[in-house]
Amino acid sequence: MKPCLLPLVTLLGLALYPVTSVAEEPQQSDYYTITPIPAPDGAVVEGGAIELLPDGKVAVCTRRGQVWTIENAFSHPDKPAKWTLFAEYLHEPLGLAWKDGWLYAVQRPEVTRMKDEDGDGRADIFETVNDDWGINGNYHEYTFGSRFDDEGYLWTTLCLTGSFTAESKYRGWVLRINEEGEMIPTASGVRSPGGIGFNKDGDVFYTDNQGAWNGSSSLKWVKPGSFQGNPNGNIWYDLAKRAGGTTGERPVEPPYTEEGSRTVEQREKISQLVPPAVILPHQKVGNSPTVPETDHSGGKFGPFDGQLFVGEQTHSKIHRVFLEKVNGLYQGAMFPFLEGFESGNIGVRISDDGALFTSGSNRGWGAKGGKPYNFERVNWTGKVPFEIHEMRATPDGFELTFTKPVDKATAKDSSFKMTAYTYIYQKAYGSPEVDHVEPKVSVASVADDGMSLKLKVEPLTKGHVHELHSEGLKTSDGGHGLLHTGAYYTLNEIPE
Fold this sequence. Notes:
By secondary structure, the chain is mainly beta. It has 2 domains: about 30-380, TolB, C-terminal domain (Neuraminidase, 6 Propeller); about 390-490, Immunoglobulin-like. Helix content is about 5%, strand content about 40%. The chain contains 3 helices and 32 strands. The chain has helices spanning about 10-15, 235-240, 265; strands at about 30-35, 45-50, 60, 65-70, 80-85, 95-100, 100-105, 110-115, 125-130, 145-150, 155-160, 175-180, 185-190, 195-200, 205-210, 220, 280, 290-295, 310, 315-325, 330-340, 345-350, 355-360, 375-380, 390-395, 395-400, 415-425, 435, 440-445, 450-460, 465-470, 485-490. An 8-stranded antiparallel beta sheet has the order 18-19-20-21-32-31-27-28, with no helix packed on it. It starts with 7 loop residues before the first helix and ends in a 6-residue tail after the last strand.
């Protein structure tokens, strides 16, 4: 068979009509890079918490009881990371904090502090700081710890026994402990925490996982003396009062009826009940939220300085959270931020110069990333993504601010869609979305500079998650859409 030759006129015709390239939509890697930092051969780094050390090293504790320090973690792979085993044989530590030359670890049964006295890189002094709570061998009696707050307290959250009962002392509680070993029972109502930390103002937040009395996973504000919603640990109230806890009176019991109730209703009956600040809708955004971490980098990690970043174990993600206080209660919005990590993120730590470290595990629950453990670093590329920066509640809707100006022609009613729903407050495990509302959303105004707009929402529903999708919105410089179009605002209070 003879080869088919394209006629010269056809070739000339192709030259006259060049193919135009179509601009691709931006990807998350345009803005944030994820760099795996391999563990030493034979090590299993199922990271439970991460701390930054004053000598520039990074410390990570593992679920298998080890603490590693890493040199060159900020510069790997340009300078290969160097791992040193600092301590081992701890009992599943899930908290690390550095203070005054000591590295504090929160283990299942106690807070321990460690020091390398002879300078060989390995801890040789171990001291028990506090062990005033109980364990009984149940696999689910995890204990998570924060860093120290401005008053010198380290905060711990104690998971229930089997995540349902409180068979060991103070299970289901938040405790705070200072370096002298003084312990103060501070709040009750915890079910199955995944991590604890601080917002930019120093207030304490922890994540709780979906289950009994938790319709969906959420980020919760630990107001001293508060009740977080699960009554099973309230059997320790009398003991907490004798220990000088900031607990007040024992909360009345929530309804145990089969039809359950709603958190917004029970707030009127249980004075100590503090609703979740931000609900993280189950399955839609994740299944197992972990530690909340604030960006204090002053813009070195991108345009989200002062906001919270929350690890997600099952979906191998990190969420972003904007918080505000309305009528004395925290509430706000969760935005997707970054996905594609190698395992389930448990520990998250952001440095002042804008590096985010994360580490985790897939043991027990599995993780989308697929690997049994990970230790990874996230860096901002310097390019600003087009994102909803803040979502604030107004008396008749929401105000959105953006990281880049919007194309005003696309800031129209048809670019926005919203649904609202809540969850049953009940003893049964979790809850479906209930009480659905389909609000009418209209654009009330757009700022002259295109950096913000106001939405009128009819109706707003107190106690509901307001799920917003902004598919049609475009940026003014290039015409591409939002990197993440979804936002999930928990409306505990409607501003006056």
